[in-house]
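Batch manifest line 621
LIGAND: 2-deoxy-2-amino glucitol-6-phosphate
JOB: complex structure
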Amino acid sequence: MCGIVGYVGSRQAVPILMDGLRRLEYRGYDSAGIAAVSGAAIERRRAQGKLSQLDALLEASPLKGTLAVGHTRWATHGKPSEENAHPHTDCTKSLVVIHNGIIENYLELKEKLVAAGHKFESETDTEVVVHLIEEKLRASGKHAKPDFNDPLLFEAVRQALNDVRGAYALAVLWAKAPGTIIAAKTSSPLVIGLGTGETFLGSDVPAFLDHTRKAVFLDDGEMAVLKAGGASFFTLAGRKVEKPVQTIAWNRSMAEKGGHKHFMIKEIYEQPESCEDSMRGRLFPLRDGVLQRETGLSPDVLKGLRQIYLVACGTAHHACMIGRYWIEDLADVPAQVEIASEFRYRQHVLGPKDLVVAVSQSGETADTLAAVRCAKEKGAKVFAVCNSVGSAITRAADYNLYTHCGPECGVASTKAFIGQLTGLVLFAVHAGVARGALKESQAREIIDDLVRIPGRIRAALKLEPRIIEIAKALHKKSNFLYIARHLNFPIAMEGALKLKEISYIHAEGYAAGELKHGPIALVDGEIPVMVIATRSRVQEKLASNVMEVRARGGQCIILASEGDKIDAGKNDFVLRLPAMDELLSPLVNVVPLQLLAYHIAVLRGCDVDQPRNLAKSVTVE
Ligand code: AGP
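JOB STATUS: finished
ARTIFACT:
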């Protein structure tokens, strides 16, 4: 999730864009760059690291011009570096592109462009776009349209994007098209700011909110031609469209959170897109498919696996607990889950046929990194499922799968968890097909269900009003129990962790079958019990757990499936989700629990995004 900005007007562009990039820094900042049209040429400044590095570079080597674009990067393809920083240029150095998103078919496009003589400088998927536009410019000129004055560039961009598959919010400058920015959007956010005699673009409104509150939000498959006097809008087919101009009422802080009160709730609502981004371009082909090609986990490696160890901390550990079920069920490989900080104390018998799967949002968690190093010392191979390209864990790993969720600003992990689960189920499916444990037809059914998950998460988000009522009723409680079984037991653990880490209420997640072996002694009218009882093979046993709790005067919050009979008591709360197959239900069942934790914490006046005693990335052991 990168940040893109653009300006065309009468003022010097660079100070405006640097300010805009600072407002978008929460969208990722492993490198940044700016390009400006200066006379008949385009000049570029790029720097690895935080924006302050680019600031220093511009201080030493200023960029002048009233037309420019800028970018702050959250790496997806290619490590954080100056070479991989945007803007990217074509072979003539007169054309630049900045991009937020993922070009799914960049490898096949790159092969064709290299064969046509294009020279690439970076490892990024984005650079394909600028050379593709260059190729169209070379060939075009015959498709000029008379009704606006930069036909060649618009037409070249339009044609290039019709060859592209994937997600993008992008902006293009051409030294031969002064005064013009061409922008386009599919799947990634892009908004145009309309000033007086100046026009802006950004990934989010904070990019230009200091200059104008008039905004036009592009929809998927739309393009824009920006000039100082305003913007015009088109479809990818080239048809002109009228777009409503909205007035942004948010203050800057709210704008950074997309109008939400906290980053955490914004990120909870981003989870459908996080799931989509984590699976993008990784579904098919299954056999010797995209996952193997992207991670290097060849069918031979997958077939030769003896044992898998999943290691992580906190929320990522809960993702591993679910991943184990999927790996054993779908790929027929014995799998163990280890808390990373404990893994290193075990005398594991590890060898080259063992795969340690390290799951981490930050890729910098000291305990998980220590476990990875321990695994490698013992000869095992390491596969990292991580949200941060170029992080320490990914540099130590043999294979990497990035979850592409963009920066997660809330300390309590939410959308990264969805990305981790998506990555783990994709790994289990691809490994199952490669090992012959899963028929392609079975794999396709699971992939079809996975593709429906973003919609199911959106349906779960609709429970928020009901969840707010429950939070109002229970936010003064001092203890909670969360119980579930099988695939959703880790979700009980995750729901409890969410509550305790942001509301400071003591909460425990337990395997429901364990209730009678001790924890039921805690049950009285004062400890609400969250029961995850959605449709599954263990649903009847959870119904018994509800009766056990009620028989002791306990109060349940029951997460159930629509259409299922639930014997709820008069003090119980029931939340219903659309019925679904249990295999992927953890990806959806976690959402109401995140929302409950969030609203209880807000009602208790807690600092939801920066809870006491916690850090976003625990880089100490
Ligand atoms: C989860 O909400 C916490 N922020 C914490 O448990 C976190 O999941 C854990 O520290 C692991 O972090 P990582 O995913 O960056 O490795």
